[in-house]
């Protein structure tokens, strides 16, 4: 996606937030690649901080992805088109767009079957060694830039990325008007999954977390009921009873947006026979869970990796008012060295911070 250097573009220097070492971000020049015929140059206006960004900052790794050289961070983003490639016909300079951050190869069997999120050649913003989007400007394929209606803000456009995870999870689990949904975890992804499940028509959505504040946010966002749980494995049986009572009916689908041994154990135990558990969060890389008894009740387990073909639906949900992501944006920062550091500290601290957003 480019390299460090004399990053002049249109007479000004293009700057980006580089992850250069553990707990070290530096705003430095970012040289853009040349504009291809199917690309656009976008001036970034809103960039959100994701849990994976914080993870990279703290440990230089996320799952099996390792940061081995300086990398521009950020992937939840929206901006304004500055320049278009010679073959681009559906966008013009001045258009406000939300960017889908993953560039797949479009040639492999996964891409051809439509599961482009599983492409082994995927180049994804701020997943090493690909540079991200916390920069003044980026160059990106035009077909991964989605025009925003006038009544949707650039911040809301940037929120299409986390919202896409919730939408893809609901599609994978077949959430609909006849499915009661349980969500494990009221972090940012659990909360967007809640919004998505309601938009998909789920009549009852119960959300579970250890944190009282997060649960109060979930209630404000439309959760039918909330259940506060502990982190102790020995409490699972009692909590399963509490969750069933809170749902009032059978749990058809559970979306585990935390991904810990305990949350997955709870999910497998509480979901009705013939129901579905969708593992969204990646808290534990390996876990020991009661799969055999769940399989004997024909509980299906499905996984989720990012998303595919979600931006148009996300934008439609926002435009129609079926989903309002604005309450999730709790903190805003500008784009200076100090503000970048403060923003990541705020996000990492958690507490009352749900989505921390940069306004560039």
Automatic annotation (TrEMBL):
Protein name, entry field: Enoyl reductase (ER) domain-containing protein
Cofactor(s) this protein requires: Zn(2+)
SMART domains, per database record: PKS_ER
The UniProt record lists the keyword Glycoprotein: no
Keywords per UniProt: Metal-binding, NAD, Oxidoreductase, Zinc
Residue ranges of domain Enoyl reductase (ER) in the record: 21-358
Claim: Oxidoreductase is one of the keywords in the record: yes
Organism: Linum tenue
UniProt-listed Pfam families: ADH_N, ADH_zinc_N
Top-level taxon of origin: Eukaryota
GO molecular function: oxidoreductase activity, acting on the CH-OH group of donors, NAD or NADP as acceptor; zinc ion binding
InterPro entries associated with the record: ADH-like_C, ADH-like_N, ADH_Zn_CS, ER, GroES-like_sf, NAD(P)-bd_dom_sf, SDH-like
Similarity annotation: Belongs to the zinc-containing alcohol dehydrogenase family.
